[in-house]
Specification:
It is a single chain. This protein is an alpha+beta fold and 191 residues long. The chain has a domain at 59-186: Glucose Permease (Domain IIA) (Distorted Sandwich), CATH 2.70.70. It is built from 2 helices and 11 strands. The chain has helices at 5-25, 184-187, and strands at 69-70, 75-76, 80-83, 89-91, 96-104, 108-114, 120-130, 139-140, 145-149, 161-168, 179-181. The strands form 2 sheets. Strands 3, 4, 5, 6, 7, 8, 9, 10 and 11 form a 9-stranded antiparallel β-sheet that branches. The chain has a two-stranded antiparallel ribbon with strand order 1-2. 32% of the residues are buried. This is Peptidase M23. Keywords: Hydrolase, Metal-binding, Metalloprotease, Protease, Zinc. It comes from Sphingobium baderi. Its cofactor is Zn(2+).
Length: 191
Amino acid sequence: MRIGARGWAGIVVAVLLCVLFLSLCVRIVPADAPHDSEPLSSASSSATELLIPVEGVPAVVLTDTFTQSRANGARPHDAIDIMAARGSTVLAAADGRIEKLFWSEEGGRTVYERSPDGRRIYYYAHLDSYAPGLHEGQAVRRGDRIAAVGSTGNADPSAPHLHFAVHVAEPREPWHGGRAVNPYPLFARSP
């Protein structure tokens, strides 16, 4: 199928309109930029912005999928999906400790990271692989390579992505506990 000059012009216009729309809807916040303190939830008042946990993914391409339903409406998503090529580097979104490396039917290969104060759990799912040497109990710094994007578990093999969730928990709650909060506003804040 050949696309003529008019077809290419239409594609270019559509892309430019999408970029313009997104630039009006999303403010890009660099990972190292100063920011206003804003509570992660009513349970935590010491939140900081999180690093987008897939290397090279800008805030402008993130989509808030937190409230979407899954399993034909049987359960809430309670996370965001960050679309990326299989094998893209997954980074620690914040400082913490690797609490659990786990395989589940839904999440596939996963990482559970707990914040230094024990009150936040960062969940990374559908991973293709772990970073070499990654192990439970390991301290990680924001931006450390921890895994690679994949489509393990119940993810569509043709749409690799990182399923990323944040849970607010009590320090002694188990690695799979806590209450889900929307991570999307912590990456890209509205103006």
